[in-house]
Amino acid sequence: MSDTGNWCLIESDPGVFTGLIKGIGVSGVQVEEIYSIDKETLDDLKPVHGLIFLFKWQGRDPAATPGSLAPIEYENGDVFFAQQMITNACATQAILSILLNSPTIDLGEELTNFKSFVSDFPAELKGHAISNSDLIRAVHNSFSRSDPFINEMNDPNAKEKEDLFHFIAYTPVNGNLYELDGLQEGPRNHGPCPGDSWLAKVGPIIQERMARYAGGEIRFNLMAVVDDRIKVYEEKVKAYQTQLETLQKNEGPDAGSWLKGEIDHLRQDIIKEEEKREKQQRENKLRRHNFVPLIYEILKGLAQEGKLSELVAEGRSRAKAELESAKQRKAASAAAGHAIEDVDMYDD
Q1: Residues near 220 by Cβ (< 8 Å), separated by ≥ 6?
Q2: Where does the record place the site Transition state stabilizer (predicted)?
Q3: Which residue, among 181, 162, 155, 153, has the nearest Cα to 50 in the 3D structure?
């Protein structure tokens, strides 16, 4: 795998992924984090275009025998599949695997032209085309962490110090459920799934994959590419209002109290979604901002006022106490068989 082009690590965050999608010109969809893959959760998000799954990369899975894996389709012109040809690109490739296989998503001019241009390419050349796309690379790298001390794209020791994580996608294509992993030779076909039945089919597949890891491994993340939630809520409000008007016309102005309640609930959902988007946009701006100059000026001012030494000593004392407390909690948790390791998850 090549490092040419310097692609940064991408944080596993729905706000980042939604911003990336919008940055490459796609409209009408967003990314939602999923904490459960039960039917009720997935039904509430419909229509779901695909799932993005993040897991700890272990190379070849020793627990997965050839017979336990879905078959690879080496030649299927109906499925857009690109091999990952560059380090750190798996997050964007997982997103593209869903976007470029959906018949209903508005891809925008740039991505539509890209899909048309590479449609007849083999998987390897599709991967190279993604790597060489100025637009896709620029939008991807716009979410690079601001770190003036270590350049994560060039530090040769960065990945030796941390576990590696990898993104793949699950999405339906022509009535079959596909697993799209750029590190494989082709898409894996998990079998027929007419309509929305793929959502029921994909849950056990992901659960089985998670079960292959040791019992203490909890570092997984699952996100869904779904329709713009505000538009979904607004369309439901419009439909309920039409029903309410018809009902009140036939039965009187006091009819349809349940419809009024549903409309009020949906309007609250719209407000919450707007607030969430504002928060995500702010967080994305903060990710790009370099706070070192501000921190330097604050520390300089404290030093000039003679307060820095005292604050440093106090900080060290607090850090030592917190570290000791954390060790005690971890020891107690491990003794109870529930040790949990926190991790910020980034792609491979």
Answers
A1: 53, 54, 55, 210
A2: 84
A3: 181
- Please report where in the chains the tokens 């570092």 appear, as a residue: 219
- Rounded to an integer, what distance in angstroms lies between the CA atom of residue 38 and that of residue 161? 35
With a pLDDT cut of 90, the percent of the chain lying above it is 51
Alpha-carbon span 105 to 29, nearest angstrom: 7
pLDDT tens digits, one per residue of 43-91: 889 999 999 999 887 766 544 555 558 899 888 889 999 999 988 899 9
Pick the catalytic residue from 128, 140, 166, 190.
166
Please give the DSSP secondary-structure letter assigned to residue 346: B
**E-only strand ranges, the chain:** 29-34, 48-56, 165-173, 176-180, 188-192, 221-227
Active-site residue, selected from the candidate residues 90, 140, 190, 193: 90
pLDDT given at position 337: 46
Residue with tokens 């793929």: 198
CA angle 184, 187, 188 (to 5 degrees): 95
Q: How far apart are CA 98 and CA 112, in angstroms?
A: 14
Report whether 37 contacts 207 (CB < 8 A). Answer: yes
> Which tokens hold the place of 14?
């729905």
Q: Are 58 and 183 in contact (CB under 8 A)?
A: no
Cα→Cα distances 249→155, 159, 185, 240, 258, Å: 69, 66, 61, 14, 16
Token pair belonging to 291:
């706070």
Kindly tell me if the per-residue pLDDT of 149 is higher than 60.
no
Q: Is 128 a catalytic residue?
A: no
Which two structure tokens, joined as six digits, stand for 197?
Answer: 């039945």
Q: What is the mean pLDDT of the chain?
A: 84
Contact 170, 205 (CB under 8 A): yes
